[in-house]
Amino acid sequence: MLGDSEMMEADERTDLTDGINLSPLPPAEPESRIIYLNQTQATKFCNNEVNTGKYSVVTFLPKFLFEQFRRYANVFFLFIALLQQIPGVSPNGTLTTVIPLLFILTVAGVKETAEDLKRHRADDEVNRRKVLVLRYGVWMRVRWVEVAVGDIVKVSREEFFPADLVLLASSAPQAMCYIETAQLDGETNLKIRQGVPQTAHLVSDQELMQINGRIECDVPNRHLYDFTGNIRVKQDQSLSVPIGPEQVLLRGAVLKNTQWIHGIAIYTGHESKLLMNSKAAPLKRSTVDRTTNSQILFLFVILLVLSLVSSIAAEVWNRRHLASDWYIGFQDALANPDAKDFSPNSFFYNFLTFIILYNNLIPISLPVTLELVKFGQAWFISADIDMYHEGTNTAANARTSNLNDELGQVKYIFSDKTGTLTENIMVFKRCTVAGIVYGTNGDDANVFSQAKLLENLQNKHPTASHIRMFLTMMAVCHTVIPEKEQDSDKITYQASSPDEGALIDAAHALGFVFNVRTPDYVEINVMGKQERYDILNVLDFTSVRKRMSVIVRTSNGTILLLCKGADSVIYERLGDNQEHRDETLLHLGEFASEGLRTLCFAFREIPKQEYEDWSATYYKASTALQNREAKLEEAAELIEMNFNLIGASAIEDKLQDGVPETIDMLMKADIKLWVLTGDKQETAINVGYSCKLLTQNMPLVVINESSHDDTRETLRRHTATFGEDLGKQNDVGLIIDGKTLNFALEFDMRKDFLDLAVSCKAVVCCRVTPRQKAELVELVKQNVKVVTLAIGDGANDVGMIQAADVGIGISGREGLQAANCSDYSIAQFRFLHKLMLVHGVWSYNRLSKVILYSFYKNICLYIMEFWFAIVNGWSGQILFNQWCIGIYNLAFTALPPFAIGLFDRNIRVESMQRFPQLYKPSQNSEYFNSKVFWMWTMNAVYHSLLIFWFVVGALYQDVAFSDGQLGGHLFMGNMAYTYVLIVVTLKAGLTMDAWSWPVHFSMWFSIIAWFIFIGIYSALFPAIKMAADMTGQARMVFSSGIFWMLLFLIPVVALWRDVAWKAFKRTLFKSLAEEVQEAEVKLIDPTAIIQRSVKKSLRAISAKTSYGLHAIGGKAAQGFNETSRLLNKLFKRTPSSSRRVTEQYDLSQHGYAFSQEEHGAIAQAEVIRVFDTTKRPEGAIVIPENR
């Protein structure tokens, strides 16, 4: 038995825990991942399959139905279809809405399936790539999708990593390898990764099979540059070795300059860091779709009002005639309450009846018409031979058709740089040595013209010694590794910097061949003679130093410091009385005006004693425990001084063909371009100049801040500087880096940053992450309320491509990740020109007309049911045969919308491409908006009124035939139906600008088809038990003289106002597009028309500005225009970090050609010390592959 105290404690515990769930808690998410090496994994991990499609077999139906019923039209017709199933409510049967709705959903489903299959096929291309995996002691080539966590993978040079890997060993010394991460961060410079020493020896399959330890690391996350883990190679070893980002090879990166690597898969598929930074494919809708949705909502309200009015009118009419009009049968209902067939319907039943009667005011065929038209437009885009790139055998691909019209309404473009604007190829174009310029001079020359330089070198020109030193520096001052092929003397240069690669290739072509690197010296072959230079020190490049130096000892014992870097830092360190200082600076400006990346070359001879003293200082700095980096920079400053200027190089960061011209055209179309890149600031600015986004006379607002408060102060100061011009476009460029952007995108600064950014003509964001790219797109899209377009080629661009209203993927050198996640894919940036300015404008104009015409033709016919209700006692009787109502949209008026949507065009392709001003009407939604929609709606009501009351008036005496017979309500309905069909078909012809053969066929077929149909349909009964009410109708209609008289009279009366309005407008108030169209018809060059329009716009802006200046007190009287005053404000303020950078940059108006990884796994100075090209690389053994 329990004691009293124990019982009391038990009672207390019961009281304390009363009402608390004491069941075991669910297991917490693991804080780390454990991966066993060469063993079965204890946990089932995500597979390596990539799926960027919108649908799967399981999710297709719910997602598809959700997407379809986001459209109010489909929701409305579903509602009508359900109402029609109520007995005694529907006046036109139970299936007249269900069948068309099912047909529409089926067509839409087929289209969505076809488009999503394209995405899945593109995913399959990636999933089916092959890679070597060590299984069962042999190397097996398996598909990427079969790679699993824990697999040991071998990746060869130029191959993508199939998953996130931990580097074990490589063909290079000390398990080093080079990778290119352009897909991840946009940088073209190579990065170094290095395996830990405990795994560096694992180069053979026997050694790899013997490891049996484990890796413990972070759970999958989206942080690209963060990784923490430990590796234990042998299970019986007690110590684990730490691993970090320096040992991780991320999916999406490419192996460069290394024969092969071995790695262990740690994150696969959608758990890889690359894909965790991507979002699921969004369901995008166009502006036209959203506008149509809102108009349908208004029409639905009008329909409800009409139904309510009709129900009230029916109630009033029934009460007035209940007792007086015996022939209706209401009196029988009064005498016998059980005779429900004769009693009038209740108010609620009448209301439902009229909703069904008027439901066709909203065209049920519109969704399927739009789907098919958009599908056809997408096919035209994909089949456009002008957007086919022969070099890569790549055509344009419309991966979705729902956004064709959005291409014609874009206001902001967000573009990646690397691989989108540029080709990732550096070309040595020009140089200046001792004040003389050498090389190419023209856009067509893609190779360095060396004849003049070699002639001066070999003929002992007065500058020959300068040329020799310049070429020697190009061949020696670098961190490149030469790699000789075993069976030939061909040398392949492995450069971590693409700029250094271009320089060393140029030196090789000029006869200064770099061919040997060892830990202690390099050798170059100069015109057949081998020269050796001992490497004493390498002073690495950093973005702060903006230069790199090599201290060498020549064969005669002379110590030289060879330095290359930005002109701003080299010129500060030149000695006195430099002979060619001014000429070189002039040439640098010339190179910069061509958009070339420049480097200055300078050297100095160092006395032996000075070098020894400095070497001791440098050694102390390199071994310092605190502030080592700062002390190394201070030591470098001591020796990098009193330079002798030799010359400068000019490298082209080769743009894709047509990029400057395309950007110029887009900006003329009033489209703003923002370049968002992960690359360095100087590189991005260089490209900005070369692609003409930035101009030499454009002031730059450069913002590089390191704190929240500094960023806020700088943004507020600059927004205040713009004053009244804030929010307007100014000829100013904004440059901002990713660190500052982190602060600028915070809630309290977003508005200031956005106000500043939209006030600038060009914006360049550098060092931005994939997530920042997406945030910038969302910021503009949500706050500026404009159509945005994002274009990129790498996996780091997927976020912004999906965030933008329209996403364009470049099928480029960086793989297909961006193209697979995009709405449209093209091979080159220049194809954006035609995609937007031609296909985008055409699609918008055509779809606008299709939507307006579809509502017009439906309202014109079905509003007659309301007019008919006025004369039939609001009984709910239909005027037309129920199946004639159903097939009006599906047959007789189906072809004109397709002719408009696929074949209509007002201006030739050549003019649309030449004159970007023609893009503005579609960009400003001039062809489809609420005003235009309701003008078309009122026109439809007007035509309907004329047709119906003309017919009623003609048959007013109830005598339609010479023998005095009556026609009946269906006779009148068939007459009105015929006139409506002719009027709306001719109206389609008036709407179209190009009368091609598909247009003629669609119009005349629609009319002829109706006459054939009524003849056959009215003769079916009694042979076929259907359409009994239509028996003999064709004979009656066609034998009536009134019918033929009205057949010619009504279309003329109905359409004369439309013709007169069109003639009046095109005579006195022509649009720019109409003027160009008329010029083309007359075979006149439209250039003068466009120039006149541009001048007119400029005068209007000038007048508005002048008025504004006068209104604020005549500030223009100071003699400065708005731009001058803005520049004065920008460059005459209290110094700040952003202003200092701006002023520094404006001194030279160009950047420097150098891009190299900083603070990597191994410093470049250490990397070159471990290579010895005179020996066979250790570990470079051939591994058998089981294919």
Automatic annotation (TrEMBL):
In which residues is ATP bound? 416-418, 500, 541, 564, 597, 677-679, 767, 773, 796-797
Q: Which residues form the P-type ATPase A domain?
A: 127-189
Question: Which reaction is recorded as catalysed by this protein?
Answer: a 1,2-diacyl-sn-glycero-3-phospho-L-serine(out) + ATP + H2O = a 1,2-diacyl-sn-glycero-3-phospho-L-serine(in) + ADP + phosphate + H(+); ATP + H2O + phospholipidSide 1 = ADP + phosphate + phospholipidSide 2
Q: Where in this chain does the record put each P-type ATPase N-terminal domain? A: 36-98
Could you say which EC number(s) this protein's record lists? 7.6.2.1
The record's keywords, sorted A to Z, are: ATP-binding, Cell membrane, Golgi apparatus, Magnesium, Membrane, Metal-binding, Nucleotide-binding, Phosphoprotein, Translocase, Transmembrane, Transmembrane helix
Q: Which CDD domains match?
A: P-type_ATPase_APLT_Dnf-like
Provide the P-type ATPase C-terminal domain boundaries.
819-1070
**Primary localization class, coarse:** membrane
Where do the annotations place Mg(2+) binding?
416, 418, 793, 797
PROSITE patterns from the UniProt entry: ATPASE_E1_E2
MF terms (GO), sorted A to Z: ATP binding; ATP hydrolysis activity; ATPase-coupled intramembrane lipid transporter activity; magnesium ion binding
Q: Which SUPFAM superfamilies match?
A: Calcium ATPase, transduction domain A, Calcium ATPase, transmembrane domain M, HAD-like, Metal cation-transporting ATPase, ATP-binding domain N
Q: What PANTHER family has UniProt attached to this entry?
A: PHOSPHOLIPID-TRANSPORTING ATPASE, PROBABLE PHOSPHOLIPID-TRANSPORTING ATPASE
Q: What is this protein called?
A: Phospholipid-transporting ATPase
Q: Say which species the protein is native to.
A: Patiria miniata (Bat star)
Its organism's taxonomic lineage begins at:
Eukaryota, Metazoa, Echinodermata, Eleutherozoa, Asterozoa
